[in-house]
Backbone:
């Protein structure tokens, strides 16, 4: 328990407190925020963001980034739509095809980054445009919207007795999986090592390139899963599905305390930040705050999230040093 | 006439005294050679002249007047130019822009006068007697040409003292000749040159006087015509082999590490060596001889082009560090801050990073398991830190090195390669490291030790291998290894192979 407190006792704590404050103030000041309906809506909004934020956290911790996630989502939606038009009516088959395609698109990113040694920022800006373009090639301006209505109701069905959709359980299970890999396995230790010092990681036998490649594949597959949810929820496949979602995802990851320079951050902080941004956005919408203002608030939070953790780290370092001077601690009592 | 004089200059880095009361005078119109072992203090001296480090004690005098160098800009303003082994030009700017960086000739409205800049660049290269297009980008210039650009830069601000730190290390024969012609011309025009080099033949070809440094002291300065290579070498190494190298006799077991005909283009060629269980084999040579590169290739951090590496008779996959570790190989690298440790992570994380798979239970790795393992090894190696959760960057150099050793010893290697294991650490820790290596050999580990410290090499090693310019040039058994034999082989003057 002390370990958990210590692990969170920094920027993550700030995010969690901010979440509690937003919920409390929202519930008091804005009519509707306290209602179960509001939380159902927030959940549906944050599910795709959370799904993509999970692998994105790992990617950014290793010092890379993937900007193409929303376009992968869009291209999977478009492909699912086209397959439906062609007569593929089996849902499991459609989902499998989508995940496979997402993994493939992620592999292309990974190949360019690791095989050719290109910066992931440049590669994924390229594929951001490329994948979205392909989505338009497939669907053009069409929308495929004649899916069976029971698919949509199944996708957004609530947990019995609650208003919150059951998909949240899927997200929670996946989050637990990613959290364990990141924080409690040898692989996770390797990711932090890579993000802080790739050369030292290589000298420790960590295959930096192979790991990076598979992270991009995982990010592609998870973006595709978000695409599946998107298609089912809105019962609509359009080429512009999820346009701009990458910014929401990256904003949440950074606000959650993950360093844009790699090597630092925890998944718990990211999940809190996803929830914070989702709640804030929906609450303000409910309060009739115009969309432009929402964008300004999101942007400001992004800046705060990049500056904030650095300030916290500096303050903590100062505190640590003074503590150290007072109480010498040794491995060996000698 | 003495242009630049160093009067009793001293400099320490933490516990390490890099320079002790160095006196040196550079004369106008004269090239002055400076030789010394790795770590003798040559580079520190160069950095003080460049204004990169302030001297702790002593004074610098230019034309007899005291000189204060608070930074590289001061050194340049005083007329001191430093040319390094690998120049640092802006690759995407033109030659002329590089030469006049931050001092561009201006015309009206503070616009850069490109034409004047080009004309003055052409004039500089004419003076140097080497043609070069002022408009070509610096990218793609050979190192020799880049150095000429640096020299032109020095001329452009009328440098009177030119300090050259191993400028010929990366040059071919004709390039060296051309560089020397330029330096001689500069001397004739009245410049003072300090020429730091490992190559005696170059010192004798170029310099009027030559100084020797050893352990931070300047031990002698003589006219080059009055000393021989053998005398210089003796002065470079002339010190007692202290009793701090306790290599115990260990029975030699089967060959554990075999390297056969290993080559990597541009780094080393045809390296073959064998290390037996219980043996400490030293790999000596000058900086840049290719020793660390061999270690990296053996460990799979770099790929090799030819040859093979066998651990206990089994061939390792080329460029696969994980496989090398699994086969029982460990490498304590040269640069602990960049290669050995992840400075931002804790002591426990660093100490267990190499064996994180074996520490995991059912695939899960807990902080508790890491801390316990780190505590065990930390105590065994007497690491002093504020605790396993402290960032390793907060530790002293010696304790950081112990963490690196703990990281690799905890994998229980059968072959241990250590690259400069005692560089930059205090004397007490040094002795502990030596004792540890000896103990490991006694338990049947095969140790390959790369070291630039001759006393360490001679005190610890059962056999001394010497590299020179990418090749293994000597294999000297303990009984025959002396400071002079090793040093001569390392400078390319040895015979026995």
Residues:
């Amino acid at each position: 328990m002390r370990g958990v407190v210590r692990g969170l006792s920094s920027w993550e704590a700030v995010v969690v407190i901010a979440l509690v404050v937003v919920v409390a103030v929202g519930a008091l000041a804005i009519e509707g925020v306290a209602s179960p309906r509001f939380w159902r809506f927030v959940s549906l909004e944050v599910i795709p963001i959370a799904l993509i934020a999970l692998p994105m956290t790992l990617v950014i911790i290793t010092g890379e980034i993937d900007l193409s996630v929303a376009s992968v989502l869009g291209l999977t939606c478009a492909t699912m739509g086209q397959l439906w038009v062609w007569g593929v009516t089996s849902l499991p088959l459609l989902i499998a095809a989508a995940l496979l395609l997402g993994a493939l698109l992620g592999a292309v990113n990974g190949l360019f980054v690791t095989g050719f040694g290109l910066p992931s920022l440049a590669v994924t800006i390229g594929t951001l445009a490329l994948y979205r373009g392909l989505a338009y090639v497939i669907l053009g301006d069409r929308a495929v919207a004649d899916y069976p209505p029971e698919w949509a109701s199944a996708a957004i069905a609530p947990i019995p007795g609650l208003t919150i959709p059951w998909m949240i359980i899927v997200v929670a299970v996946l989050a637990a999986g990613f959290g364990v890999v990141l924080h409690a396995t040898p692989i996770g230790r390797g990711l932090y090592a890579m993000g802080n010092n790739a050369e030292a990681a290589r000298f420790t036998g960590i295959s930096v390139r192979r790991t990076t490649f598979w992270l991009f594949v995982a990010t592609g597959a998870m973006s595709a899963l978000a695409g599946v949810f998107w298609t089912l929820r809105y019962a609509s496949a359009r080429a512009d599905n999820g346009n701009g979602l990458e910014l929401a995802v990256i904003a949440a990851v950074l606000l959650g305390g993950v360093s844009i320079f790699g090597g630092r951050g925890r998944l718990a902080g990211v999940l809190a930040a996803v929830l914070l941004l989702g709640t804030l956005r929906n609450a303000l919408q409910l309060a009739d705050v115009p969309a432009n203002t929402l964008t300004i608030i999101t942007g400001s939070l992004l800046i705060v999230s990049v500056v904030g953790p650095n300030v916290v780290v500096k303050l903590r370092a100062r505190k640590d040093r003074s503590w150290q001077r007072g109480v010498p601690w040794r491995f060996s009592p000698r | 006439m003495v242009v630049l004089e160093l009067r009793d200059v001293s400099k320490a880095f933490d516990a390490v005294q890099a320079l002790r009361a160095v006196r040196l005078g550079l004369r106008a119109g004269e090239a002055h050679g400076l030789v010394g072992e790795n770590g003798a203090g040559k580079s520190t001296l160069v950095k003080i002249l460049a204004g990169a480090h302030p001297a702790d004690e002593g004074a610098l005098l230019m034309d007899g007047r005291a000189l204060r160098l608070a930074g590289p800009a001061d050194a340049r303003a005083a007329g001191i130019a430093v040319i390094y082994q690998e120049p640092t030009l802006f690759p995407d700017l033109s030659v002329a822009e590089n030469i006049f960086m931050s001092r561009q000739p201006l015309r009206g409205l503070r616009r850069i006068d490109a034409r004047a800049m080009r004309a003055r660049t052409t004039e500089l290269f004419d003076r140097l007697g080497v043609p070069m297009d002022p408009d070509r980008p610096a990218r793609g210039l050979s190192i020799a040409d880049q150095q000429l650009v640096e020299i032109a830069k020095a001329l452009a601000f009328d440098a009177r003292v030119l300090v050259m730190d191993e400028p010929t290390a990366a040059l071919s024969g004709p390039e060296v000749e051309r560089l020397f012609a330029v330096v001689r011309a500069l001397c004739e025009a009245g410049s003072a040159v300090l020429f730091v080099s490992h190559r005696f033949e170059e010192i004798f070809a170029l310099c009027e006087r030559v100084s020797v440094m050893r352990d931070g002291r300047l031990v002698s300065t003589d006219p080059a015509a009055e000393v021989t290579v053998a005398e210089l070498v003796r002065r470079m190494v002339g010190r007692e082999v202290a009793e701090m190298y306790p290599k115990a006799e260990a029975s030699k077991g089967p060959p554990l590490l075999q390297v056969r005909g290993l080559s990597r283009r541009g780094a080393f060629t045809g390296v073959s060596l064998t290390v037996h269980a219980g043996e400490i084999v030293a790999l000596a040579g000058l900086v840049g001889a290719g020793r660390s590169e061999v270690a990296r290739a053996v460990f799979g951090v770099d790929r090799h082009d030819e040859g093979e590496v066998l651990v206990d008779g089994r061939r390792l996959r080329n460029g696969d560090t994980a496989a090398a570790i699994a086969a029982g190989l460990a490498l304590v690298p040269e640069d602990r801050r960049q290669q050995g440790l992840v400075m931002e992570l804790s002591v426990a994380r660093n100490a267990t990073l190499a064996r994180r798979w074996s520490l995991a239970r059912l695939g899960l790795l807990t902080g508790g398991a890491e801390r316990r393992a780190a505590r065990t090894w930390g105590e065994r190696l007497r690491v002093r830190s504020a605790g396993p959760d402290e960032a390793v960057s907060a530790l002293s150099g010696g304790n950081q090195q112990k963490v690196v050793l703990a990281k690799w010893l905890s994998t229980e290697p059968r072959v241990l390669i250590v690259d400069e294991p005692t560089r930059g650490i205090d004397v007490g820790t040094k002795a502990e490291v030596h004792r540890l290596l000896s103990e490991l050999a006694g338990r049947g580990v095969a140790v390959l030790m790369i070291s630039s410290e001759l006393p360490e090499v001679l005190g610890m090693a059962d056999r001394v291998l010497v590299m020179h310019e990418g090749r293994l040039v000597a294999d000297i058994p303990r009984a025959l290894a002396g400071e002079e034999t090793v040093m001569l082989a390392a400078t390319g003057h040895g015979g026995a192979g």
Observations:
- Confidence is low (pLDDT under 50) at residues 1-5, 320-334 of chain A.
